[in-house]
Structure prediction request, 263 residues.
Amino acid sequence: MLPLKCAPWLTRRTSIALLTVGLAGCSSQPPPATTVTCAEISYSVNDPAEPFNRGVFAFNRVVDDYALAPVARGYRYTPDVFQTGVHNFVANFGEPKVFINDLLQGNPGRSANTLGRFLFNTTLGVAGLIDVSGMAGIPRHNADFGQTFGVWGIGNGPIVELPLLGTSNSRDAAGRVLSFMVDPFGDNSDTVDTLSTIDTVGDVVDGRAQALPLTDSLQKLPDYYSALRNVVAERRAAFVADGKQGSAQISNPQCKGAPADGF
Prediction:
């Protein structure tokens, strides 16, 4: 994702303060409309603004059907080595934010794993195009600010459908806003700006391509909106549980397979 290079220092500080205030409301959310249990993981779906969310979802689906998904389908026809390189580069470029969240979650072992992966892959792996750390048995994991807030005990909050960004809950949406503001690489390098742009494009296309089998199957169901909303809630619950456990891999396979973020 592109950092907000043009945002003034005061604007960033004010936004973070407002973000913190908003999160306080997430922990005191009303009773969820639906509670589901995935193996040993229980997750809630609280969608009080469903009519409005469905309207935004309809807009997002038009964009996806006519722009993003066709590009992702074309991308899947490119050579596997190219797709693997893009995926590895995107994952490696995001490691510094994973490292920050590992530390915020109080997990020094996981943060050391992330830092080691980033150093090895950036140097020996040609800027992350080759996952030499994975070949050496150092597993990859993910972490974001929404997961960190969940590990801290902040509740999901109500479902929000974000224009272009998709289905989320208010806690994870706040985490996305904070992620936009955090720039571990700084903002004074044209090279970093270029790499960040490449990373953003690669992340969107590669992520959408990986999710195609899932979304294609969900679109066959009578209510695509609720199916996708519920599977995203399921995936995020497993993601937060994984953060609390601190393992490098999601430990509940029955909750895997859904995207960490919505569409």
About this structure: Residues 11 and 120 are 36 Å apart (CA to CA). The chain is about 60% helix and 5% strand. The beta strands are 34-38, 41-45, 159-162, 166-169.
